[in-house]
Amino acid sequence: METTDPFGPSTDEMESLKEELEKWKERLEKAEKAKADLFLCKLSADEEHVKAQDELTKLKDLQEKQRKESVMSRENYETELCLLNQENTELKREIEKLKEDLATNNSVLSQDVQIKKKVAEMKMKFTQMEDMKDGYPDMNTHCVFYVTTKIPFRLNKNQALLTFEDEEVAQRLIKMGKHTVNLDSKIANLRAKPVTLEMGIKFELHVTISGKKINVSEIPELSIPDDWMRDKLELHFYKSKHGGGEVENVKYDKRSGTAVITFLRPEAASGFLRHATCSFFVNGRFYMVSVSPSTEKHLEKLQICSGISKKTILLKGIQETEDDEESVQDMIEIHFQKPSNGGGEIENIKYVSKGVTWAYFEEDT
Predict the structure, then answer these.
(1) Contact criterion met (CB below 8 Å) for 359 and 153
(2) What's the pLDDT band for 172 if we cut at 50, 70, 90?
(3) Could you give the dihedral angle defined by the CA atoms of residues 16, 21, 26 and 28, in that order, rounded to the nearest 10 degrees?
(4) CB atoms near residue 158 (< 10 Å)
(5) What span, in angstroms and rounded, lies between the C-alpha atoms of 270 and 257?
(6) Which element (helix H / strand E) includes 290?
(7) Residue 190 neighbours by CB distance under 10 Å
(8) Residue 162: other Cβ atoms inside 10 A
(9) Which of 147, 200, 206, 298 has the most CB within a 10 Å radius?
(10) Where are the extended beta strands (E) located within 116-199?
């Protein structure tokens, strides 16, 4: 017998409530699981957020670094461009100067070369006797002068020339190209360039001073035939009272007012050369004419050369400083003498802070 409580739930209702309770338990478990999953997702999201923040910070730092590098790169580029423009302007000036020098040298070479040189007094001694020609020894004086010109180099403002004892040091510095030098108040980025030289000339000048001929100049221009003037000259320089002697030949040029007198004996020529002038009587008047030795000149072994100095470098890009020229030169010399900077012993250095100067190179023998 089953009894029922008229005031309590029925059996069916209890079963229904139990089922409902099980359902709510399942829902609760699902809700707890969903809550745990959401919590895990939140933790993961927080971690991702932190990572994202870190990445964003890194990106901002990288962007700022790139911006600074871009600004520095632009400034360096502008500085380099400015230096290149200055160098380009200097090169254009050097090209124009080379063209002018080349035109000048071509003009000089196309004209007769005149060289004035004082010859030092030397002690002489007799060495040998040569055969006499036509009964008289060769009384001509033969001289050979070996001439080598110095090669000029234009050193512009804020440039320096360094000559090293060792050729390898100069070539190494040129190969390195750029050099960072501490000039006390600022850091200078200098460029080492080879020194290309202009044209130089070498030749031998052979001079023969005649022992039998003299030159006569400043002969008066008179309205008499050339033959008469030639005869007057021969007669004058033949007379012994004037210190003359037998004349072999007279070449007279009326347009230039000059003549070349050739004597038969050498001592006659030397008698007139003791004085720079002598009196000449013609057409009833005395005139003073100039007398000088007769010389023949010719060049041999003429060489026109140019090249690149192996031991010298040209430094460009030196910016203006408040330091005096000598201090800057000392700082440059100290830097390039150090082996740690690729340098070595310096023979000579020249720095120009203002204007333009000229350096001169000689052949390294």
Answers:
(1) yes
(2) very high
(3) 150
(4) 19
(5) 22
(6) strand 285-305
(7) 22
(8) 26
(9) 200
(10) 141-148, 151-155, 159-164, 178-182, 187-196
* Contact criterion met (CB below 8 Å) for 306 and 198: yes
Q: What count of other Cβ atoms lies within 10 Å of the Cβ of residue 359?
A: 20
Whole-number Å distance between alpha carbons of 22 and 25: 5
Interval 60-107: pLDDT, tens = 888 888 888 878 777 777 777 877 787 778 778 778 877 776 666 555
The pLDDT, as a whole number, for residue 5 is: 55
Q: In this predicted model, what pLDDT tens digit does every residue of 11-38 receive, in sequence order?
A: 888 888 888 888 888 888 888 888 888 8
Burial class (CB in 10 A: 0-12, 13-18, 19+), 212: buried
Q: What is the pTM of this model?
A: 0.45
Answer whether 155's CB lies under 8 Å from 350's CB: yes
b/e sequence 227-263, b meaning 16+ C-beta within 10 Å = eebbebbbebbbeeebbbbebeebebeeeeebbebbb
Q: What amino acid occupies position 208?
A: T
Report residue 307 as tokens: 């090249």
Nearest Cα residue to 263 out of 136, 78, 99, 75? 136
Q: Which residues contact 193 (CB under 8 A, 6 or more apart)?
A: 174, 313, 314, 315, 316
Q: Where are the beta strands (DSSP E) in 197-271?
A: 200-217, 247-253, 258-263
- The answer to whether 323 and 125 are in contact (CB under 8 A) is no
Residues with Cβ within 8 Å of residue 62, at least 6 apart in sequence: none
Q: Do 340 and 173 form a contact (C-beta atoms < 8 A)?
A: no
Closest CA to 296 of 211, 214, 209: 209
Cα gap 183→330, rounded to integer Å: 10
Q: Which two tokens stand for residue 349?
A: 């250095």
> What are the tokens at 335?
């830097």
Q: What is the largest CA-CA distance in the chain?
A: 195
